[in-house]
Design goal:
This protein has about 575 residues and is α/β, with parallel strands linked by helices. It is built from 14 helices and 24 strands.
């Protein structure tokens, strides 16, 4: 009997292949005979390319072009869609112009893989329906530069866009930026119901309640949710102007998903595998990727002879269920020894054996200057003193830092930072008990790579001697940390982006700058590998790679409640190759 993912893999979402011509210019394709067959046709209702256009997975000679067509209410049969691709915005120099197939069984989406393009070249494209005279906006895309064709590569790194949480100003800012490519690390949509996670006092005023109103489970639910997100003008603008390279995280399916289940999937919501298949099918309909199997979205890109970008699936294909501290606390509040046994189990995996083998091979064999991971979740070691786990768990369970809990947290943090400062200063009066308090550390976030430390060491070993960069999302907050192995020896660096709109730690600690600033400073002081943290602002990450260095800029928007694409650079970090 076929599994759901095996059945999904039989669906081909990229149904069109178009070969661009070189050395000549085409005449625009006409819809043969349409005027003669129905010269008096007048389209009715709302129709056209209402979700805009998009491009995905650029290479040196290929790019996937996307749109979705809404037929007129009186438009019978399968609409005929024409695609034009040109080297100029006026479409005077066409390199492709032909009819492409609309997939009525995939929510009327159109996915076209255009090949035989020139490297390091900007292209313009549009979709047309001559029967209704509907024409899409003009999209812009870019093929990747080959070796020696560009001195630097700029990636805009994004994740976690929650529609009810506020306006997508970060997408608008990226559209206006000089980024070459958008690397989207997941949580492109959220699955929750109206009034669920992300809802705030502005949601209703901004008319950003989720559609459909209930938590999404069926294939129609997921399609409705994607159509809503793709109705956002700023997201449409980013897709119109920048090629995207995407992977999914958990909320494209449901919260804290893993291979066999998810925290936010309950027995009364039906079969999890069916829900997962629905979610992944719609992901491919709206965010097409050039893959050989639809459940295997890990893939790599070589850019300008500088960057080897490896996009991972740390969520679905292989991940074992996350550990939960609550399952290991003894009655006296101590952590049972069985936690360490399970946590350090060498067989625990976030990648799965097949992807791990692929990634290890890619890292060890590739010789480009920068080995860059597109990892949904944080890869670095974000270990906090173990005695902080209890109070942080209480704050998380309460959903906010009450005055009492905040006072306890601040008092404990002050004690621990004082001890750590004394150790750094060589204070001979530091006792072994005090030293143990700050050196007995455990991961805060077991959903990240921290929950799978043995496999992380395998990957670090494969990357030995390389300039390794982890790009991460998921947490909604901005981080800059060293990647260190068990020795500990530095093996790379991590640049993690803030969210587009999903709330960060300000949702727990409030938005008082002094409180948030103290929290950020405490994390940097107590987490050995952490260099920088921003726990309250939304935005994106702009990373520029050149032969000798990688420069990361954390760009933050001003507001979520009115259209404003102005950004502030909150931090800049430079890593040498």
């Amino acid at each position: 009997m076929k599994t759901y993912l095996e059945l999904l893999n039989r669906r081909k979402f990229i149904r069109n292949s178009v070969v661009a011509i070189t050395g000549a210019s085409l005449a625009p394709t006409l819809l043969a005979g349409c005027d003669d067959d129905d010269p008096d046709f007048n389209p009715e209702g709302e129709f056209g390319f209402l979700q805009g256009v998009a491009s995905f997975d650029p290479t040196q000679d290929q790019v996937i072009l996307w749109t979705r067509y809404t037929p007129a209410s009186n438009e019978d049969g399968t609409p005929t869609i024409l695609l034009d691709v040109a080297t100029d915005a006026e479409f005077n120099t066409l390199v492709a112009s032909e009819s492409v197939e609309i997939d009525m069984n995939s929510d009327y989406t159109v996915n076209v893989d255009v090949s035989n393009l020139q490297s390091n070249t900007q292209y313009f494209y549009r979709f047309r329906n001559e029967r209704t005279n509907a024409v899409s906006v003009t999209g812009q895309t870019q093929t990747l530069p080959g070796p020696g064709e560009a001195m630097e590569v700029k990636l805009a790194v994004m994740s976690c866009a929650n529609f009810p949480a506020g306006l997508f100003n970060a997408y608008g800012a990226v559209a206006e930026s000089d980024a070459d490519i958008v690397v989207h690390l997941g949580d492109y949509i959220y699955e929750y119901e109206v009034g669920g996670y992300g809802t705030n006092d502005s949601t209703s005023t901004l008319q950003r309640e989720h559609e459909p109103g209930e938590e999404i489970i069926s294939i129609d639910d997921y399609r409705t949710r994607y159509r809503q997100y793709r109705s956002d003008e700023q997201l449409q603008r980013a897709h119109q102007l920048k090629p995207f390279i995407c992977v999914w995280d958990d909320h494209e399916i449901t919260n804290d998903a893993y291979r066999d289940g998810a925290e936010n999937h309950q027995p009364d919501e039906g079969d999890y595998e069916t829900r997962k298949m629905n979610a992944l099918q719609v992901w491919h309909e709206y965010l097409p990727a050039r893959v050989t199997a639809n459940d295997r979205i890990y893939r790599n890109f070589e850019i300008a002879g500088l960057v080897h970008l490896m996009m991972l699936d740390t969520r679905i294909i292989g991940r074992d269920k996350q550990l939960n501290y609550a399952d290991y606390f003894n009655a006296d509040g101590s952590l049972d020894a069985s936690f360490s046994t399970d946590w350090l189990n060498p067989n625990r995996t976030i990648l799965g054996a097949e992807q791990r083998t692929w990634l290890s091979s890619q890292l060890s064999s590739n010789t480009l200057p920068w080995q860059v991971l597109g990892s949904q979740v944080l890869m670095g070691k974000y270990y906090i003193p173990a005695e902080l786990l209890g109070i942080t768990a209480q704050i998380a369970a309460a959903g906010s830092a009450t005055p009492g809990l905040l006072a306890q947290y601040n008092a404990l943090v002050t004690e621990l930072i004082t001890i750590k400062t004394r150790i750094a200063q060589g204070d001979p009066s530091v006792t072994e008990a005090e030293r143990s308090r700050v050196q007995t550390v455990l991961p805060y976030n077991l959903d990240a790579w921290d929950g799978y430390p043995a496999e992380r060491e395998v990957i670090f070993t494969s990357a030995a001697g390389k300039s390794l960069v982890s790009l991460a999302g998921d947490t909604h907050n901005a981080w800059h940390a060293q990647l260190t192995d068990a020795a500990p020896t530095k093996v790379g660096i991590e640049f993690a982006t803030a969210s587009v709109s999903s709330p960060g730690f300000e949702g727990i600690f409030g938005d008082d700058p002094a409180t948030i600033g103290a929290f950020e400073a405490a994390n940097v002081a107590l987490i050995d590998d952490l260099i920088y943290a921003d726990a309250s602002r939304r935005g994106f990450l702009l990373v520029t790679f050149s032969q000798g260095q990688a420069e990361a800029q954390w760009e933050f928007i001003q507001t979520l409640t009115s259209v404003n694409t102005t950004t502030i650079t909150g931090n800049t970090a430079i890593e040498s190759a």
